[in-house]
Amino acid sequence: MGVPVCRGELHAGVRRRTAVSGVGSGWESGVSVRPEDVPKLRELLVGDWSEGGVLAEIAPILNVSGDVNEYFADEERFWAEKADLWFVGEEMCALLEHARTELPPTTLTSGLVTHDGSYRSAGLVVFADPIFGMSAKPDEPPIPVGAMTWHPAEYSGWNAGRGRMGLSILLYFVEPGEKRLLPLGRVSWLEGEDTDALLGGLSELQEASMAEDRRTLAAMLLLASQPGVAEVGEKLPPRQQRREAERKGRKLSPVRVIRLRAAVERERSGRGDGSGSGDGDGEGGRKREYHQRWVVTGHWRQQAYGKGWTLRRPRWIAPYVKGPKEAPMDTRPTVKAWVK
Predict the structure, then answer these.
(1) pLDDT (0 to 100) of residue 69
(2) Rounded to 5 degrees, what are φ and ψ at 192?
């Protein structure tokens, strides 16, 4: 593969080519998407990456390394057909946009993507509300990312070495008129590399934009894997879509719908968790006494796992109330000051 194309760098090319092809060229972000729309978006995406489709025509813009155009388009079509379908609800989008900025550097492992220790799976996620991210071009406003795809890829460019596995991530804008996906950029994530790893040969803004995209995907996968944070359900495609797919000899998979759990305030009890009247040691080894309750904001914690507990996986700790249950709540606003 070649040097990836970052968000913002595709605007002119995609808008020009898709407008000519009749797909539309608006970049407004106020498009309403529902879980039942995801299978149809996938069907349109497969068609657009197929021979003669609008995305197959603009593949050279994404595939800047000079690889054979038809191979790149065929690869995207192949993995789009096999992708697991995801939909992220509105409240979960708000949490995701916040949590990704707090996410510590996270290493790409097969366990992050799948449970069977392989890179065989691919995914298409559509966001109920767009996730805004920085443009890779200077002085451009944030770009609304309405969907992402990811699939396994073998890399041999830059500092990757030969035969190194990783993920190819494409970001999409949801075109409001026809509700179809238009590509915004392509991001590479190499196995064993952190979300914030530098690829080299790119500007500081390009590197930051790509790291932000990796953080978005990593945070979504991590949050979705935590039952205490996310509720993951399934929704079947509409019956008409299922029948159309059956006539074509295909079976539509259900959509995984990720929603935020309703409870955001959590009371903790028991020794050692800080929810009692005291916590930790004060002066002279005395137990510290608390006389108020307060909200501990959501944050990531590195959780040990794996053989010998030598590996670390970020785990989101939801907001909770700390302090004695009978004590009054401290409602004073928090002021953060940066003093030299």
Answers:
(1) 43
(2) 85, -5
